[in-house]
Amino acid sequence: MIKLRNFFKSFGPKNVLRSLDLDIDSGEIVVIKGKNGSGKTTLLKALSTLEKPDDYDLAEIDEFDLVSNSEEIRSRVGFLSHNPPFYPELSGLENLDFWLDLHPAEYGLDYASEMLAKVGLIMFKDDMAGNYSRGMIQRLGFAIAIAHSPTTLLLDEPFTGLDDEGSEIIEQHLLRLKEDGCSILLSSHDDISFADRTLELDQGALK
Amino acid sequence: MNPILVLLKKELKVEFRTLQGIVPAALMSFMILMSLKFSIMDSVVIEKSGILWVSVLLTGLGLITHTATREIERRTIETLKLAPITRYQLFLGRAFGSMILLWILSTIIFILFLVLFENVFGDEWMLAYVVVLVGCIGIAAVGNLAASSMTPMYGGWMLTSLFAIPILLFTVIEAGIKCTDSLITDSSDFQIALTLLFLYNMVFVTGGAWLSEISD
After folding, report:
1. Which PROSITE patterns does its entry note (chain A) (predicted)?
2. Cα A14 from Cα A119, distance rounded (Å)
3. Model ipTM value
């Protein structure tokens, strides 16, 4: 569950997010659209705690304050960047296992393999991630975003570089996560047919 | 597993798969030691250990800057920042990873120093080696703190050294040189200098962890 009231973020003199109000319920898929530079990525990064807001009246995920409870927020949020970062010297399995090891819960290699199987990467799990194609990196990034069972999922253009099968896999996962009560906010330039709502971000403000 | 150990394991695995940091740093230290051997003719300077510490400091900071820059350029630093771990755990995991890499690099430098400068430590060479390893703890802590503040900036690879060298020079390096020099001259300053070295290390490791936590 995401709640924002009067949320501001700027970079120097440029106001990227201006007096933003946003509510996303559990089990809701919301798409955020907007031109390049409209503030979509900044909003997702701010919600993931990667960027600090300048000012706000309310900024909560699952009733935890975004700034004062950032560690708790990070354990609840799954984030997929537009260009997912990864260690090219590690295999896909090692990349995912490293991420899971940073969480308090014990997951193990079998669980990591299972997650890679779910995104169609099991055949390539021991290949170095540096040899993955763009679409495979996107699948790995998605597996990393959902592997720790987040209650809130933030996806920045998640279908970039994916083939039809990859897009279908991610759609099915998003629908399953929605049923499990996960709040999902994703940015996209395309229409997303399975979304509950679509919002338009224009020059840092929601229309 | 403790997140500090997870980060340390990752740091070593990434480096040992490519050796992109250790090998150039070891070659650079060889060049520094060779240059100093041929350019300094004063036997008083050669008979002391400053040359060893300068080589460890310069190439060690280069190695730390390399690993930090790699993390920034690939944006994997974002992955680390998104993990539900405290900032001090992130700092300690990266600093201890660098420390292990510095220990490997220092071992190579120490062997080169013994060979090129005809073992100035005599029978005390093992103790001198341990002192260098202890000094690496402080270099890793200050180097990582400097790298995490400076590498996101333009020219950060250079700024890291500019920030770290003055801090290390008058603390860890000075105490380290006093320690190893006292082994060469057989003076009684060794224990005081070693205590000072441990003290500086403790301040830099705890101070670095604290600064990482409050700067979040």
Report:
1. ABC_TRANSPORTER_2
2. 38
3. 0.87
Partner B, chain A 43-62, Cβ-Cβ below 8 Å: 48-50
Q: How far is A94 from chain B (nearest CA, A)?
A: 9
**Locate tokens 């080169």: which residue?**
B112
pLDDT of residue A14: 87
Q: How many domains does chain A have?
A: 1
Q: Is residue A61 part of a domain?
A: no
Among A77, A88, A102, whose Cβ lies nearest the Cβ of B3?
Answer: A102
Contacts of A144 in chain B (CB under 8 A): 79
* Model pLDDT for residues A141-189, shown as the tens digit of each residue: 999 999 999 999 999 999 988 999 999 999 999 999 999 999 999 999 8
Backbone Cα Rg of chain A: 17
By the 8 A CB rule, do B206 and B142 touch? Answer: no
- Distance (Å, whole) CA A150 – CA B82: 12
Q: In CATH, what number is assigned to the domain containing residue A38?
A: 3.40.50.300
Identify whether A153 is part of a domain.
yes
| Residues of B within an 8 Å Cβ radius of A | 1, 3, 6-7, 10, 13-14, 17-18, 74-86, 216
* More reliable by pLDDT, B48 or A106: A106
Place of tokens 């799954």: A78
The CA–CA distances, whole Å, from B42 to B38, B174, B202 equal: 11, 20, 35
